[in-house]
Every structure is written in C-alpha cells, then in structure tokens.
Amino acid sequence: MREFRYRFRVEFYDVDSMDVVWHGNYVKFLEAARCAFLRDVGFEYMNFRDIGVVLPIIKMEFKFIKPLFFGDECEIRVRLNEYETTLKLNYEIYKDNTLIAKASTAQAYVDIDNKLTLFSVPEPFLKALRSRYEI
Amino acid sequence: MREFRYRFRVEFYDVDSMDVVWHGNYVKFLEAARCAFLRDVGFEYMNFRDIGVVLPIIKMEFKFIKPLFFGDECEIRVRLNEYETTLKLNYEIYKDNTLIAKASTAQAYVDIDNKLTLFSVPEPFLKALRSRYEI
Amino acid sequence: MREFRYRFRVEFYDVDSMDVVWHGNYVKFLEAARCAFLRDVGFEYMNFRDIGVVLPIIKMEFKFIKPLFFGDECEIRVRLNEYETTLKLNYEIYKDNTLIAKASTAQAYVDIDNKLTLFSVPEPFLKALRSRYEI
Amino acid sequence: MREFRYRFRVEFYDVDSMDVVWHGNYVKFLEAARCAFLRDVGFEYMNFRDIGVVLPIIKMEFKFIKPLFFGDECEIRVRLNEYETTLKLNYEIYKDNTLIAKASTAQAYVDIDNKLTLFSVPEPFLKALRSRYEI
Questions:
Q1: A2: helix, coil or strand?
Q2: Which residues of B52-66 are buried (b: 16+ CB within 10 A; e: fewer)?
Q3: Does chain A have fewer CB atoms within 10 Å around its N or its C terminus?
Q4: ipTM, 2 decimals?
Q5: Domain at B71, CATH number
C-alpha cells in the first residue's frame, strides 16, 4: 500500500498569538490533503455526490508533536487505513524530516436522500481505489 | 431609524501572531451581527429561502481604526442604509466608547431557481422591516 | 465534580455545502467553551501567561454523532478529566437533549521562556481550580 | 508596472451552504496572494519584523462579481497601487478568463515598539521593490 503525499505552506492567517499554527487549522490541512488524495484516486466528493453518497466525518483524532510556524513548507503523508465499511485515513505531517503531527479521520458512506449510513463501500469508488492502490 | 446592537467577545482563535484580531475575522463578526439584526426584524435567511430568495454579498468595505485583543467585549451597531434594490447595512464596532472599525455590506436579492438578481425588495421582507423600523 | 456549561449559536459561516456545521468548526466551539470554563475557574490564558506558562493542545479527539444546522442553539458540557500533569477536558455537545458530539482535549503546561513541558500543574492554577471544583 | 500572479484551488472548507465560496474566505485568498507577492519581491513579513515594522491592514474593499465553487482553480493578479506612505495593493481574481472579484487592501507601516504609523516606506523594502518592479 503506497502513501499519497500532499504539500502545503503555512499562511499568516494559520498562525495564532503564540506564533504557531493554531491547532484547529490542522483540520483544514487534512481536508485539503484528503481531497487531493481522492483526486489522485480519481474519485472525488463530486463523484460521490453523483452516485448519491456523501462522506461526513464521524471521528477525528490529532496528536501534536512539534509546532509549525508561518512560512513553513510541509508535507502530509496520507495512508488508506480502511475503506470497506467506513473510509479511514491516517495522516502524518512532516516538515523536512521532522514529524510534526499525526492524525486520523473516519468517514461514513451516507445515502444523500434517506440520510442512512451504507456500511459498505460504493462500488465505483472501490473500483477507482483498486486501479490506484494494491488493495 | 433606530440602530440594532449586537454584542460579542473576541475568542483566542480570532487573534493573530500580532496579538490582535486578524482582519479577516471581522467578516464573521459582521455576519453574526447581520443575522442577529434579521432575527430581530423577524425575517431571517431561512425565511428568504422559503420564498425562493438568497442574499449573496456583492460588496463589502472595512476601515480598521484600532485593534481588538483576545477577551475584548465589543458591540456592533448595525444601521439599515438601503433596502429597496439591494440590502445595504452599515456597521460600527465599538469597545466601550472607542470606535474600533467601520464597515458596510451590500447584498443582492437573488432568485434561487434562475439565479437572477431581483433588483427589488421581496414583499414579505419589506413588511417585516416596516413593522420594526420606521421606513 | 461539577460540569461547566457553555451555550452558543451556530452561525451561517459555520455551515458547509452539506448544510451542516463543518467538522473543523467544532474545534472553535470547544475552544470558546474551554476559555469560558477557565474564566469561570478564575484563571485564564492571560493569567497563565503572567506566570510564564502557555497551554498548547497536544491531543484532541472528536466523535460526531448528529449534525448541527445553521441557527441551532447548543450547549457544551465541559468536565475536568485531569489536571495534575496535563490539562485534560471532556466535552459533550447537546442540542436540547440530543447528544451531538463528544470530544476531548489535552494541553501541556509549557514554560514560555525555555519551551519545556512542566509535567506538573502550576500552583496558582491548582489553587483557583480547588476554590471552584471539589478536587 | 508588472503584475504578480498567484494561483490557488478552492477547498471544500471554503464553500458555504449555498455551494459557493463564503465571501469572508476571499480575505484569506488575498492574504496568501499578498504574501506570495512579497516573497517574490524578496521582502516578507519576517523581513519587516526584523527591521521593527509591522503592516496592519487599515482598509479593505471587495466587489464580488461571479461565484466560485469547490474545486475551482483560480488566479489572483496583484498590482502595486501605492507604496510611498501606505502599501496599497489591487487584486483581481480570475477563473480562466472570467473576472470573479475585485479587491484592494491598504496597510500602514507601523513601528513595532512604539506602535506609531511611519507614513513613509521603509528603505530596505523600497530597495527590494525597486529591484523587482519599475517604480
């Protein structure tokens, strides 16, 4: 299983009065990385919507190890942890070779119309995943 | 024409690395004040949606005079400037009796379905405005 | 051990294109609740700073159960989980009597000057906690 | 006078419940473009700080012409409008060849220590500007 890498730069508006990235902004970094990962897979939120599925976050966890500063250039390494009943991704944020933070998210596959959780991976997404990752 | 007053407190996440409120966060303060104003009028975004109208911001202007700090308790004074063809509001942000910032927003009345600008105030909103303000 | 309650309203800017509160905004809600909790204790971030201590978030976890919508009025129930070596708080977000989300945060006590983690609760904070909570 | 171009992508967290970019997020786009412009000039916020100067925003204006959607790839064209007593920049946001929004910001040159506005461009910044732009 390969990992997907997403690069970003810390902006001025990301930083709080302690001169480090405000912890809540890591949620944005993860989302940008996750969307880039799905773009790379070839099946994005728009594609899910087209088949009547949305992917609300049902769980997220963060461990902050070192601070990030304005102007830092970073990399998020995204790994697919689970996709069968929920979509679980693990993230590691690096600045150069220093581990800055670890995180994970879990998303449900939810039917747009009846709002029910599907508990199984939508077929077209599974197909896209398989064509890109060895699962 | 009376003015509407909205109170808020500056949170830690509002403050940037210069220890003052980041200028972009004033857009949030205005929106919260504007929604409170419409709640007071008795005709909110939900009510607009029910009659098939949305109110996108088409213009906004800010003048920043003094900084705000974490924990500051402030007041926004909202005044109705125009409502006939677009909704224009003026805002003054005060900390105690010190003027912190001035701002204005303009919103179009837009038909949800065909995305066309109406250029005239929806009747139910006008009625609600009139029952509350001397216009 | 009593719990502290903090009330807030969901604003328009909190909501995403699925018409529900974007998951990242819960981090803000928690921070506002946490600061209100510390205000209630009588020992805020400013007081920590005055004794040379900052409290970076080192861990946070969220479980999202039900969605929140624009205009919802909610309550966060904050409970002190640990304070001896790190400050750990648990949060439950309620709309009326429905549990919306559960979360927890852990903060280190860090010396501002040498950036070292203290691993023990600063005395003035402990005193303030004890005068308010039965610990 | 050349213009500086900055590219960005609209993320999911930028979009509001009307499925378009929330107006307040344009402030972030501008700041990222402005910082990239200063990076290109070779004199960034950090360099200002090193010579004891900060650049608070004292004015900003936005005109929104067309909406932006999740996933849109855009370009901001930044033009230097004034630098002698305040730093004024003009911005045009384009998606392909469609003008999406126009904006401007004004920043004061402020002495970090005494908080006084300088009303004149700091010499090292002027030098950097001149080596990059024909002014």
A1: coil
A2: ebbbbbbbbbbebee
A3: N
A4: 0.96
A5: 3.10.129.10
Interchain CB distance below 8 Å, C70 and B45: yes
Q: Tally Cβ neighbours within 10 Å of residue B23.
A: 23
What is the DSSP code (8-state) at residue D106?
Answer: E
Task: Output the DSSP codes for B62-130.
Answer: EEE-S---TT-EEEEEEEEEE-SSEEEEEEEEEETTEEEEEEEEEEE-EETTT--B--S--HHHHHHHH
Q: Rounded to an integer, what distance in angstroms lies between the CA atom of residue D91 and that of residue B93? A: 26
Which of B11, B12, B15, B17 to probe the A interface (max A CBs under 10 A)?
Answer: B17
Q: Tell me the backbone φ, ψ of residue D104, rounded to 5 degrees.
A: -150, 150
Q: Inter-chain contact D46–A70, Cβ cutoff 8 Å?
A: yes
Name the 3-class secondary structure at B1. coil
Total domain count, chain B? 1
pLDDT tens-digit map of C51-78: 999 999 999 999 999 999 999 999 999 9
Domain that holds residue D124: 4-132
Q: pLDDT, tens digit, for every residue of D64-106?
A: 999 999 999 999 999 999 999 999 999 999 999 999 999 999 9
